[in-house]
Amino acid sequence: MFNKNKQKDYHNALANAFNLKKNRENEAKRFQNIHPKINSIIRVDIQKAIVDDSAIDSTLLNVTDVYKMDSIQTSTSIPLNMRNNDDNVFIPKIELKDIIIPTYSDNDKYDINNINRNINQTIEMDVYNLDDNFDYDISKLYRKKIQTITNVYQESYTENIKPTGFGDFIRGCYFLLQFCSKYKFQPKIIINHPIAVFLEKFYKVFFLNQIVNKPLLRLIPMFTENNWKDSKFDTANYIVDTVTNNKTIGDYVNYLCSLKVLNNTIFSYNIMFPYDEICEDHKKYVRELLQPTKEIQLYLDSTLETLDVYKNCYSVIHIRSGDKYLNDDTKIFDTAYFKKLVYEVNLLICFNPDISYLLIADNNEIKLLLMERFPCLKAVFKSITHIGEGTILEREKVKNTMLDFYLMAYANSINSYTCYAHGSGFSYWCAMTYNIPHKCMFINIK
Q1: What is the model's pLDDT at position 79?
Q2: Which of 418, 417, 413, 420 is nearest to 436 (CA)?
Q3: Which of 109, 208, 220, 401 ranks highest by number of CB atoms within 10 Å?
């Protein structure tokens, strides 16, 4: 009975060994079938079975001892060889993608923690708002693909609107130059006005426009709003600064958006005040526009010779009594106004007795009255005109008005007296364009 039991145990041990071997083979097949799922080939090194015939206790073979179950190992280790230099190993390829690296402006270098180092650093900003209380979107003009903004000075605009004076025109040119410079538009100035006859750059084109382009030019509108808000005065009532209302610039942008675009260009006329100091490049640009023809140059030289004065060797006293005198609506001057004018001119001459003064005014009557009081003054007595406000323009009157302008352009200083709180644009913008010292007193007589 004992021998039969041992023999039975021996056969059970052989069966278990066989089953373990089959299990290991099945495990190996299972690992070999993994690669279709992970799209790679993994070499499986299966160690030689630890439990084999030699693992059976020798006493069982001789049927001399009881079978010891704890001597059989029921698991095995399966090392996975993943060395990259092994040709049998395939690691999935990783596709590299281009990564967009952001670029940075100089503003990104600004160190907010170091105020002293950054105090002089310029920060570039696209600021479309010139007034904290009013926003406007300049990008609307960009979306209309506008490249050039043209300022056109002529006698009449759509709806029969008449332009303002010559000084207002120059002022509007400076505004446009600054506006275009700030927002990257191309500025252009066209003078389709009778003054063009006396301007070297425009006199030939002026006659052509009257024949060829007149129908088109009639359709040009005018931006009639003005951004002047107030003036600042010193204790003597001289104008020292101008206060502008920048809300009007927003209205101007909206107005430009409403204009018809022709070949990426819009045409209009404005009388806006510039909002920055006038740079020398813009002055040079305007001086080129106002270069006189040979006719007016000869007229100027002849007048200076008659007056016995030389270019840049005299000072101008400019009187701006108002459009009602310039347009011959009246010849009667207010007594208080005239007394104030006499008082101020007398102070000027007494403090500067060695200076030669040339008197320029918007009417001849005031010249006569002042020269009776001050015989040292010199003046030209010729008929002039207001070249805006719908005045009927006669060639000789326009020519004499331009003569006054160029006489001021060759002065070494200009002293202006005006009835307008915003000053006299005719003398101020002449002085600004030709870099002439200028003072303007507001004579406020109520």
Answers
A1: 52
A2: 413
A3: 401
Question: β-strand 239-244 against 228-233: which pairing, if any?
Answer: antiparallel
pTM of the model: 0.69
pLDDT of residue 8: 60
| Amino acid in position 294 | K
Q: 10 Å Cβ neighbour count for 430?
A: 27
Give me 36's structure tokens.
């279709």
Give the amino acid at 107: N
- CATH 3.40.50 positions along the chain are 307-442
**Distance between CA atoms of 420 and 444, rounded to whole angstroms?**
8
**pLDDT tens figures, 163-189:** 989 999 999 999 999 999 999 999 999
Token code pair at residue 91 = 């690691």
CATH architecture of 307-442: 3-Layer(aba) Sandwich (3.40)
Q: What is the DSSP string of 351-395?
A: H-TTS-EEEEESSHHHHHHHHHH-TT-EE-------SSTTPPPPH
Cβ atoms < 10 Å from Cβ of 241: 9
Confidence at residue 207, expressed as pLDDT on a 0 to 100 scale: 82
- The set of residues, in sequence order, having a beta carbon less than 8 Å from that of 172 and lying 6+ positions away, is 151, 269, 270, 271, 272
Confidence at residue 345, expressed as pLDDT on a 0 to 100 scale: 97
- Regions of the chain with pLDDT less than 50: 2, 40-42, 44, 46-68, 72, 76, 78, 84-91, 99-105, 108, 110, 112, 115, 117-119, 122-133, 326
Buried b (16+ CB within 10 A) or exposed e, 63-77: eeeebeeeebeeebe
Classify the C-alpha dihedral 36-37-38-44 as positive or negative: negative
